[in-house]
Input
Amino acid sequence: CLYERERLQNMYLAILDKLVSYSEVQGAYEAGLGYGSRILSYDGARERTHRRLMRLYYLAGDRTAALRQYDSCVEALRRELA
Output
């Protein structure tokens, strides 16, 4: 049962990851940010997702949010590696 739950969660995260990519290509940055945030709610130390969110914020014209996302990434990785 635990294995099945983990398998389904990994599948869910992979789908969300694809949706982040699709949203970026389509210029739907807000949607991509939402999908990426969902990924981080499951795995806050996923550096690749943090980088993608920084890029989406930048493309959406919100440089301040991109920098905040960077700070969030640094803190999440610091907690994970401590």
About this structure: The chain has one domain: 2-81.
